[in-house]
Each structure stands twice: as C-alpha cells, then as structure tokens.
Amino acid sequence: MPSFVSHLECSRCGRRYGHLRVHNLCGCGGPLLVEYDLDAVRRVAGPDDLRGRVASMWRYRELLPLEDPAHTVSLGEGFTPLIPLRLLGRRAGLDDLWLKDDGLSPTGTFKARGAAAGMTATVERGIREVALPTAGNAGAAWSAYGAAAGVTVHVAMPRDAPATARDQCRRYGAEVTLVDGLIGDAGRVIAEGVQAHGWFDAGTLREPYRIEGKKTLGLEIAEQLDWHLPDAIVYPAGGGVGIIGIWRGLRQLAALGWVSADMPRLIVVQAEGCAPIVKAFREGAEESEPWPDARTIAQGLRVPKALGDFLVLRAVRETGGTCVAVSDDEIRAAVADLAAGAGVLACPEGAATLAAARRLREAGELRPADRVVLINTGTGLASPELL
Ligand SMILES: *Cc1c(COP(=O)(O)O)cnc(C)c1O
Prior knowledge:
Layout: E1 5-10, E2 16-17, E3 32-36, H1 38-44, E4 82-84, H2 86-92, E5 96-101, H3 111-124, E6 129-133, H4 137-149, E7 152-158, H5 163-171, E8 175-179, H6 183-197, E9 200-201, H7 210-224, E10 232-236, H8 241-256, E11 265-271, H9 276-283, H10 309-318, E12 322-326, H11 328-342, H12 348-362, E13 371-376
Helix pairs in contact: 3-4, 3-7, 4-5, 7-8, 11-12
The chain binds pyridoxal-5'-phosphate (PLP).
Pyridoxal-5'-phosphate binds next to helix 4 and helix 8.
C-alpha cells in the first residue's frame, strides 16, 4: 500500500514538488512540507483502527510518508508515556499538568522520531549517504538509524557538544567532524561536504521528512487524551521542528474529524541565553534575527537562527499561544524538581517547559484548571553534569 502523501509544498511560495523524487529546499529557499490526501485517509481509517497496532509512531502510518512498510527503519520510537504530574502540578498551581516523556526514546531523545521518518524516506529514495549538522542529539539519532539501515552518516557538531552525543555518533559508525563554533558553523562544514561529495543534505528542514516523525508527538498526545486536545502544549524550541510538526499533525487530525478544531495554545520555551524566537514574538516580527553569543546549558536550544522560525511564530500566533524565555538557573531547578517531585530524570530542554509553565501560571497566562502538556524531549542521563 503506497502512502497517502500527495506532494511536497513550499512553506514560503507554495510551489509543489513530487514526493517520490529527492528534494531539499525549494528553489526560493523555503522548506518543503509534506501534504497528504486527507480525504482518502478519512475514507479508509478512523481512530478505532489504531487499536492493536504497533506501540510506536508507525501506528499512524496513514499520516506518515511511508511508501512500503517493508522499508520502515525503526528502533521502537514513539508512543512514549503521557504522565500526570499531580504533585508538581499542585505545587505550581496547575491542577491538570502532564508530561509527555520522550526521555524514553531510542538514543535518548525525541530526535529518534525525526531520524526514523527521515532515514526511512532516505532508504525509500535509494540514498546511500547523508550528512547533517547537529547540536548533538540529532546526530546521535541519525547515526543510530543510519546504522540500522546500512546508510553512511556524516555529522558535524560544535566541539563543545555533549560527549554523550558525540561518542554515540562514533559508536554507531558515523563520521564525526568537530567544529569551533555553533550549529550554524557546523552547517557550513556540511554544505562543503555536500558540494564536494554529493551527500544528501539531511539538515533540519532541509530534508522534508524528519518533521513528519516529530509530528507524531502531537498525534500521540491526542490519542493518549482520548482525542480531546489539551488547552496548552509547552515545547522547548531550538530549530522548532517539533512544534511545527505538532501544529501540522493536530490540524491534520482536525481535518480528519478525529479531534475538534479547537487547537491547544502552542507555547514555545527558549533559554534566556539564546531566545531569538521569543524576541521576534515580542516584537511582532515574522522572522527572528540571529542571536549573538548564544549560551545555555540546554544545548538543544542553542540555535541562534532557525530556518523554520517563521513557521514556529505562525504556529504560536495562530493558536493564541505565547513564547517565553527561562534562565539556566530556573532550568536547573526544574531538572531537580522533576526528578525529586515526579521521578522523571529530564533533559534540561525538557525541564525548561516546567520552568516556563510556572512563569506563565504566575503571570496569569495559564489558569489553574487548564490542561497543560509539557514535552520532555530527552533523558537526563545524557547530562551527567546535571546529576
Ligand atoms: C533538538 C532538541 C530540542 C529542540 O528541538 P527542535 O525540533 O530543534 O526545536 C529540544 N530538546 C532536545 C533534547 C533536543 O535534542
């Protein structure tokens, strides 16, 4: 059974591309997004059909870019627990607080979702060699899925990226280049390799499919809340792929009639030491400006300028959400509280969502009865310095 994908569409100019060919960005420089024939999906599938399916993100196969199930590259990613945070919620004045815990993902972060979808698409298009810049975790995930698929992976990352991510990449057999600078500088190294060797550029939003994997976070939250969407979802944004994916996934569910059209408020968290999207939101701008001298212990959020910033801002504004920056001290405190108050060892990026929810509750932006879902994007075990 082929996929229900109808085409790829440029998020800037609307130009369409065939999805079975290999594509990166649109000619205009805009990221390409995957579009589906939702009328056809509606005719063949409903929520009841999910019963008994595999407990991974591939249970939503009608909404994923998979042409032949035999090509699926999977390590069991997705369908992670949605945990009620009763004690922490009560303490924060939020009576209906939940945590979607992607710390239980293969390779330790939700990057596994993107890598599973991206690597599957890579295999289906006959690509044998891919390259990507990374702050660390995407590199680890793509390296693992490359190992599973027999695809060669080249990654470039900042020299000060977490050792756990760097060493994972090497163990999975990827070729690792360490770069003085940040993810943007790593991107320039990858662009040279792509030019010189013809590798496929699998960088964030430069390949259209990883966002489809991250989208399943939203599909799962909907299913796990019995198809009643929460009032707010709080997400730690670096490149912002996860939140763009969640937004698109929930709109697809609404178009299918599986949920009501009332979207949750999408709330973006960044670190005070690197908050370009928060700044753009406050200034009413449609895009962010590169953030100078980006610094934070939450390295997944250390993205000075995201290619998809305009889509993140659109998702936040269209859903009546907001953007908030939290300090590294608040993040450290939230890591400690999630551990001692909920039994969850979260990554700093994930813990930032708790810090943000507290601030928004204090500011009256979240009400006590709001159903709020925090997204923990990775395991705290990869940050031994925070233990
Ligand atoms: C990559 C990453 C993020 C940010 O994800 P984006 O999709 O780039 O916004 C957050 N947390 C962790 C642990 C990450 O690895």
